[in-house]
């Protein structure tokens, strides 16, 4: 593809003209995100969530002798497998195209802004958890006694204990070793997204340095691959309401509501922390630093947020997030392709918040008073482990085990978290995805992109001026 076929303002490739009547280009909004009948995709998913809770409660696991849970599990797994099928080719093509579009000149500025945003939001999320849990005290009952005195702490089932004890604080260094995979194909097949992304970043960077026809041919290949993966994703998302229904109905039918009673305090604290981060912290950053109306951004990201809630996987939701950010919010492909795949691996606001809250809760439940120094260590460890946590359901439990080990707290207490982990995993994944999407929009505005959520390009110094006006 020749260079004059790229839009100089957005970095997107210009859609190829197809002579056939009604032919689609890759810029055509996906049918799955358009109004389908009476409901949009977000409306269909929301309806599926409500029906799943109702059906899961009414039918349970095996009402009328029918193994409903097995059916839910089958349909839900099909949906998850379909999404995971496109993850590696979509991430690889997105990062390579994004990095090649950025080139060497803008890499330092864009990369610094992205990493600065990730560090700031993750730190704010962890500090929110620290404040909420210390004020709420969910590890104590109404009389101020540790839950250990009123609640029998169950032992971990299965091989969870062995899996957690096999790790120690030294595994933090493994985060850095995973950045350089010895075999990029093996890294991709095993789901090691951190190593795959680093390789693709290098590939895209040096691809931008090849100013010949050979470089443009390779770039055109990956641009076409990216467009194809988005089309496949659009097809998969047409079945999203059914997959969401099956996944949520399985959780409700399996756990019911009674199991949540002893953990309501902890759930409330985590939900409050996530709500503060998602509905206060991030919207303030959107408005004050980028001039983006938070309500419009929430509306644009609704399909991605609801998909993240149902799948509890940032990686599985990445194709939907990319589509929402590019086509509903109007962020250029080169920015979205750089910010979002990287964010799905290293920017885990909700996960870091949950890890901090979980460790402090367990300490309170066992009557262990953590000093300020120990709580500061929890903050640092939560920041570090959230970077290396895999973007799959419940992966943060292993990271929580590492933190508990480093603090000398009993690993058996993690069984408490297993009772409510699936529900909270769905919530914190939604926070992770919304944080990534907010970062893409904010960074794109800082980069001077126009047309984001219908807004004109952000003038130089406008963010600072807006902050002064709101003081």
Low-confidence runs: 1-37, 154-171, 467-471
H-E string: HHHHHHHHHHHHHHHHHH
Count, helices: 18
Based on CA inertia axes, which overall geometry fits? globular
CA-to-CA gap between the ends? 48 Å
The share of residues in extended strands comes to under 5%
Proportion of residues in helical segments:
55-70%
Multimeric organization: single chain
| Mean residue pLDDT | 75
Strand pairing plus helix content: what structural class? mainly alpha
Task: Give me the Rg, rounded.
Answer: 23 Å
Biggest sheet descriptor: none
Number of strands: 0
Core attributes:
single chain, 471 residues, mainly alpha, 18 helices, 68% helix, disordered N terminus, disordered C terminus
Q: How would you describe this structure to a colleague?
A:
- By secondary structure, the chain is mostly helical.
- It contains 18 helices and no strands.
- It has helices at 41-59, 68-85, 87-136, 160-165, 172-177, 184-189, 193-207, 213-237, 240-255, 264-290, 294-311, 314-328, 333-346, 349-365, 372-388, 396-407, 414-446, 462-469.
């Amino acid at each position: 593809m020749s260079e004059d076929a790229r839009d100089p303002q957005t970095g997107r490739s210009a859609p190829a003209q197809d002579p056939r009547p009604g032919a689609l280009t890759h810029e055509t909004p996906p049918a799955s995100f358009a109004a389908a009948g009476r409901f949009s995709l977000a409306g269909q998913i929301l309806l599926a969530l409500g029906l799943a809770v109702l059906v899961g409660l009414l039918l349970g696991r095996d009402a009328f002798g029918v193994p409903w849970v097995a059916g839910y599990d089958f349909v839900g797994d099909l949906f998850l497998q379909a999404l995971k099928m496109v993850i590696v080719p979509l991430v690889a093509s997105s990062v390579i195209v994004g990095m090649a579009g950025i080139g060497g000149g803008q890499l330092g500025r864009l990369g610094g802004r992205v990493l600065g945003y990730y560090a700031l939001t993750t730190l704010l999320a962890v500090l929110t958890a620290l404040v909420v849990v210390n004020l709420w005290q969910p590890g104590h009952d109404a009389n101020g006694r540790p839950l250990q005195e009123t609640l029998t702490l169950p032992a971990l089932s299965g091989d969870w204990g062995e899996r957690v004890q096999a790790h120690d604080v030294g595994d933090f260094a493994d985060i850095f070793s995973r950045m350089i995979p010895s075999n990029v194909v093996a890294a991709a097949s095993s789901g090691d997204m951190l190593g795959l992304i680093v390789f693709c970043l290098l590939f895209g960077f040096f691809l931008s340095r090849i100013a010949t026809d050979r470089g443009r041919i390779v770039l055109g290949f990956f641009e076409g691959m990216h467009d194809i993966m988005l089309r496949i994703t659009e097809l998969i998302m047409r079945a999203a309401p059914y997959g969401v229904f099956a996944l949520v109905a399985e959780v409700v039918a399996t756990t019911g509501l009674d199991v949540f009673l002893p953990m309501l305090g902890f759930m409330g604290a985590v939900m409050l922390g996530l709500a503060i981060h998602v509905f206060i912290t991030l919207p303030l950053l959107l408005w004050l630093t980028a001039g983006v109306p938070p309500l419009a951004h929430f509306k644009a990201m609704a399909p991605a947020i609801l998909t993240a809630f149902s799948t509890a996987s940032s990686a599985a939701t990445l194709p939907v997030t990319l589509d929402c950010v590019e086509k509903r919010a109007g962020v250029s492909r080169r920015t979205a392709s750089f910010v979002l795949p990287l964010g799905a691996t290293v920017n885990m606001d909700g996960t870091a918040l949950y890890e901090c809250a979980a460790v402090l809760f367990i300490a309170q439940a066992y009557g262990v008073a953590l000093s300020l120094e120990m709580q500061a260590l929890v903050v640092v460890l939560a920041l570090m482990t959230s970077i290396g946590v895999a973007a799959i359901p419940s992966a943060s439990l292993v990271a929580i085990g590492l933190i508990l080990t480093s603090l000398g707290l009993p690993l058996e207490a993690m069984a408490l978290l297993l009772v409510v982990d699936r529900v909270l995993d769905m919530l914190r994944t939604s926070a992770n995805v919304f944080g990534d999407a907010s970062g893409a929009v904010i960074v794109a505005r800082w980069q001077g992109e126009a047309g984001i959520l219908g807004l004109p390009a952000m003038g130089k110094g406008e963010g600072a001026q807006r902050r002064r006006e709101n003081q």
